[in-house]
Amino acid sequence: MFLHFVSQIIPSLIQCFFLCCFLTKGGLVAKRIEWTTLCQTSVWSIQKIFLKSIFYFWIAPHRNWRTKMDGDKSPTFARNFLDPLGDMPGPYLDDFFIFLKDSNKVNKQSNQVSHLSYLNRRGIDYIFTICARLKMPPDVRFVAALIFDRYMSVHVQEAHLFINTLDMTAEQKAEQWTKTQCNIIRQLSLRVVTAIQIASKDNYYHDSLSNAVTAKILLAVGSPFTPRAIIRSEMRMLRAIDYVLPFSPITYIESVLKTLDRYDINLEHPNVIWEHAVLFLDVMFSFLNEIIAQLQTNLANITSQTLTSRKIPVKGDWLLIGCSCLTCAIACVYGFERADAVSATIGKITSISSQDIVDLSVATIHFINNEHQEVGKGCDECTTGQEFEKRRYD
Questions:
Q1: Whole-model pTM?
Q2: d(C-alpha 203, C-alpha 222), whole Å
Q3: Residue 230 burial (CB count, 10 A)
Q4: Which residues of 292-310 are buried (b: 16+ CB within 10 A; e: fewer)?
Q5: pLDDT tens by residue, 123-179
Q6: What's the rounded Cα separation, in Å, for the pair 31 and 346?
Q7: How far is the C-alpha of 14 from the C-alpha of 367, rounded, in Å?
């Protein structure tokens, strides 16, 4: 950092030196330069030295830069759950959870049919990769995926209804719909990066993506668009989703994890649990349909009549998904017995059946063990994954 400061400050010093030499040698009269212009140039050079000194020695050390100014250190976005500064009083916490439950209920009802219908594994990996390259916090990638899905649902539906209202034959409508699909596919990169830009402004405002940076990203991925086109795309997406941004699923994980202390559930390493829960949430986003199929298979294999008739609506229920990710994380860090005990407390906090939480957790771990062993390499107990499942279903 000091070397960077020196490299920036030396040109200004050289400029002041030559200006002083120019004055002492009488070059002012020979060149017929006005005194006001020279004084303004000298004052501006001194101001630059002063401002750069303040920036590098006072402002820069206290900011968490996303650029590589101080080396290759990547910013850390882990939460400090042990800090009591952000604790919410009891009555407000109860009201907050009522608000979360109501919001989750509305989200579940509105997204039960079309939730993630326009996001396959390849699209989710595309969004997550861009956010990882830009070193965005985890909330940005999840919110961006939900914004993109909601926009595509509205946009495609409106385009389809508009073509149906046209006074054309069936062949002409089919041809027009083919052209519309080509335009939608051509603009997919613009829509994805615009969704990331909106999510960054909502969750990471001080280091959010500007239009110029967004244009550079699109150019890098092979889709050149002007900043003006990016602004129009941003406004169009906001109008399509009615200016209502979705909740980050991490909000449910963090709220429940922070509230466990009030129920005498003392977790020694809450930050580690949070990191594991976010990883499980990544798996949920990428393989949600496969995990739901695994859940249905597990429920179908149970011989009890009370359980075989159960159907767990998972899509759109981010409170249930967040609780299941948290339970999986506790199972990986502390073991399956601790996860069984904590899942009952999580059910009391969220008013969700602990049986549903554990069933979805078992399906997630079972899917990881059977299909994607590399995901669970960091957890010794999850690499086998049979103990939790056996105890749950026996």
A1: 0.73
A2: 27
A3: 23
A4: bebbeebbeeeeeeeeeee
A5: 899 999 999 998 898 999 999 999 999 899 889 889 988 998 888 888 999 999 999
A6: 80
A7: 65
| Cα separation, 145 vs 150, whole angstroms | 9
Q: How far apart are CA 4 and CA 301, in angstroms?
A: 64
Count how many residues are written for the chain.
Answer: 394
Q: Among 351, 370, 380, 277, which residue's Cα sits nearest to residue 321?
A: 277
Cα(290)–Cα(87) distance, integer angstroms: 37
pLDDT band at 30 (very low <50, low <70, confident <90, very high): very low
**Topology (CATH) of 118-240:** Cyclin A; domain 1 (1.10.472)
Which amino acid appears at position 175 of this protein? E
Token digits of residue 253? 């994980």
Structure tokens at 180: 């519309």
Distances (CA, A) of 261 to 159, 266, 276, 371: 50, 6, 19, 35
13, 49 contact by CB (below 8 A): yes
Contact partners, residue 334, CB within 8 Å, separation at least 6: 267
At 217-261, the pLDDT tens digits run: 999 888 889 889 999 999 999 999 999 888 888 989 988 988 887
Residue with tokens 């046209």: 166
Please state, in angstroms and rounded to a whole number, the distance separating the CA atoms of residues 242 and 245.
Answer: 8
Rounded to whole angstroms, the Cα distance separating 121 from 141 reads 14
For residue 73, count CB atoms less than 10 angstroms from its CB and return exposed for 0-12, middle for 13-18, buried for 19 or more. Answer: exposed
Average pLDDT of every residue of the chain:
75
Helix (H) or strand (E) holding 352: none
Classify residue 203 by burial, with Cβ atoms within 10 Å: 0-12, 13-18, 19+: buried
Q: Where are the chain's structural domains?
A: 2-61, 118-240, 249-393
Contact 388, 376 (CB under 8 A): no
Provide the Cα torsion 377, 378, 379, 383; round to 10°: 0
